[in-house]
């Protein structure tokens, strides 16, 4: 049975480009749908956050303001409630042992732009996982966590790799717009990654060897399925 470390942001706010503070958290569908698919396939999933802080769900991900129907919101709430033991007592990210896991899985919401994108400990963990060929999967703004991984000379560990992430156009259409602290797609390109995005809000997953990335919440299930497929091929 595969063992997967799901790393969730502990941030509940984000400083925007204009200096104002915006409430945020993890995106409900990305945690709930991903976790459900992974567990249904028999994988063991541990949840870790920076500082073992209980993660906050982004309120927008559970109502119409975030484009989520009430039916879907009820489903996500119910599943997250079933994970309450794990969410209330996550593992401290700094203390996890990579050797215990076959894969790392990072869901989004805007929150990772606050903490995971700048977490040097996470960066070392991701670098080690990639060097060992372990599966590294990230979804939507969770792909920002990859930015924490740098080479000894200051380069981007995942430069030259092909991936996807929450698209700039999606940020403009239904995200934070021009007030976003940074456009993730553009920054990944600047750091040397090859970014391939599908149409806005399309189910888009890119697999580059052990690196699996999903574009947006609509790609949650497919990203988890691609992770399972990669693990099954080992």
Q: How would you sum up this structure, described in words?
A:
This protein is an alpha/beta fold. The chain has one domain: Class I glutamine amidotransferase (GATase) domain (Rossmann fold), CATH 3.40.50.880. The chain is built from seven helices and eleven strands. The chain has helices at 28-40, 70-82, 84-88, 120-131, 168-174, 184-190, 220-232, and strands spanning 3-7, 13-15, 21-23, 44-49, 91-92, 103-106, 135-139, 162-163, 194-195, 205-208, 211-214. The strands form three sheets. Strands 5-4-1-6-7-11-10 form a seven-stranded mixed β-sheet, with helices on both faces. A two-stranded antiparallel sheet has the order 2-3. A two-stranded parallel sheet has the order 8-9. Helix 1 (28-40) crosses helix 2 and helix 1 runs parallel beside helix 7. The longest helix has 13 residues, at 28-40. It is globular and about 40 Å long.
Strand order of the largest sheet: 5-4-1-6-7-11-10
Q: Superfamily at the CATH H level? A: Class I glutamine amidotransferase (GATase) domain
Mean pLDDT: 97
Shape: globular
**CATH architecture annotation name:** 3-Layer(aba) Sandwich
Question: Spans of 5+ residues with little confidence (pLDDT < 50)?
Answer: none
């Amino acid at each position: 049975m595969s063992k997967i470390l799901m790393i969730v942001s502990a941030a509940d706010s984000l400083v925007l480009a204009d200096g104002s503070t915006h409430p945020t958290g993890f995106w409900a569908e990305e945690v709930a749908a991903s976790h459900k698919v992974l567990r249904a396939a028999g994988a063991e999933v541990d949840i870790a956050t920076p500082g073992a802080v209980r993660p906050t769900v982004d309120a927008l991900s559970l109502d119409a303001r975030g484009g989520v129907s009430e039916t879907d919101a009820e489903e996500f709430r119910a599943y997250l409630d079933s994970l309450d033991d794990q969410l209330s007592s996550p593992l401290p990210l700094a203390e996890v042992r990579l050797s215990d896991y076959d894969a790392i899985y990072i869901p989004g919401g805007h929150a990772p732009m606050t903490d995971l994108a700048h977490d040097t400990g996470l960066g070392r963990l991701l670098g080690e996982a990639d060097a060992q060929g372990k599966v590294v999967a990230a979804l939507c703004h969770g792909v920002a966590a990859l930015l924490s991984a740098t080479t000894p000379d200051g380069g981007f560990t995942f430069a030259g790799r092909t991936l996807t992430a929450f698209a700039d156009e999606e940020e403009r259409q239904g995200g934070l717009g021009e007030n976003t602290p940074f456009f993730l797609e553009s920054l990944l390109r600047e750091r040397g990654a090859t970014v391939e995005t599908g149409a806005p809000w399309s189910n888009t997953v890119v697999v580059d060897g052990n690196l699996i990335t999903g574009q947006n919440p609509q790609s949650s299930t497919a990203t988890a399925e691609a992770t399972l497929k990669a693990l099954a091929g080992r």
